[in-house]
């Protein structure tokens, strides 16, 4: 069984749990880690609430569009604002929370990674970072590599996020 930050990875639904809930459950759906990460990010930013992955899957189902029967509800922040989703559990490791926030930012398109080849001369990388700054973006990480680049020896590959 693969481990995930949501904490809900199980190989199959337990027999007792399934038998107990069968008459009460209309349907089962799955949500991705990406949707859950985005849900955790939205809760932190909009509600100032920290919730572990398992507690955010209800919101993940809503924002990922997995419940089309709820579409059309009055909109405030998200399309389903009149729907109640139970949020539970704040037991998320702080190091995991940082990674989940980054994943949520990436899913939301607010954290991107680009790889470019620039001239390997004094000021080549500086010109790249200046252009990024002129676009109003910040650099989180930057990595450059010369030895394993397939172009000429006067170029450098730069990965920026």
UniProtKB/TrEMBL annotation:
Taxonomic source organism: Dictyocaulus viviparus (Bovine lungworm)
Record-level GO BP terms: isoleucine biosynthetic process; L-serine catabolic process; L-threonine catabolic process
Co-factor requirement: pyridoxal 5'-phosphate
Keyword Amino-acid biosynthesis assigned: no
Keywords linked to the UniProt accession: Lyase, Pyridoxal phosphate
Lineage, opening ranks: Eukaryota, Metazoa, Ecdysozoa, Nematoda, Chromadorea
Single GO MF descriptor: L-serine ammonia-lyase activity
Record's protein name: ACT domain protein
Keyword ATP-binding appears in the UniProt entry: no
Classification via SUPFAM superfamilies: Tryptophan synthase beta subunit-like PLP-dependent enzymes
Membrane-crossing residue ranges in chain numbering: none
Matching PANTHER family: THREONINE AMMONIA-LYASE, THREONINE DEHYDRATASE, MITOCHONDRIAL-RELATED
